[in-house]
Amino acid sequence: MLVIANGAPKSGSTWLFNIVQNLHTFSQVPEDYLLDRTNPNSEIVYERLEEFLANVDYGANDYLLKNHFGKAHQRDALLGAPDVLVINIKRELKDAVVSAYYYNMKLSGKKRTFDNYYWKEGRFLADQIRRYHRVWEEKPSSRVLLLSYERLKQNTVSEIMGIARFLGLSCSEAEAQAVIDATSMEKLRDKYDDGGEIKFFRKGQVGDWENHFSARQLADIEMIEQCGLENASIGRRALAKGLALAQR
Length: 248
Prior knowledge:
Layout: E1 2-7, H1 13-21, H2 49-55, E2 63-67, H3 72-79, E3 84-90, H4 93-108, H5 114-137, E4 144-148, H6 149-154, H7 156-166, H8 173-182, H9 185-191, H10 215-227, H11 229-246
Parallel strand pairs: 1-2, 1-3, 3-4
Helix pairs in contact: 4-5, 5-10, 7-8, 10-11
């Protein structure tokens, strides 16, 4: 069995990976395929996915990957192979952008305003995440489980038990609680050596976007979510032009 802990950027896929990792014993992914051998996540080189599917015996051994497979050809390769199960996690788009904002500052070591990040990078990430989910929505499959980050936060025990059922594993409430304890914010920060002023696992809070988005940014991202970045930009320009004409 090959299990993919999948998700768009900053949607909770690392947390999901650790939950699944604590539900079952998986074999070590061959190092030659790993994107970064020092990273605790078993993330493989994206360009080698089809090679991995063809050459690694995941029928005899169970493997767990944590990747962001969001291209149509990646989806088709995974769903076209036997014994592959994909768990996609979806998060409120605005919260994902806020999470990416802090991660960006952590990587760069430079502070910037959310307004600066949103207009230069955040809205493009929002469109990337939208397109990622559209790829998977185009081909629903019984071998793909779609998780909600918000439900996972609010009903963690029942959601973990649901993940286990999807994987064909048994999991009691007590076992689910043990997984929760093993994947707490503190444990994950320790595992990922999360030092520095800005944490990789910062809050994980649902609705934190309300503390960051202006009305203008909110209108923009909602338009992106509905019709995509290009159409949203056209719509914003048309609206601005219409307002300017009305004020003459």
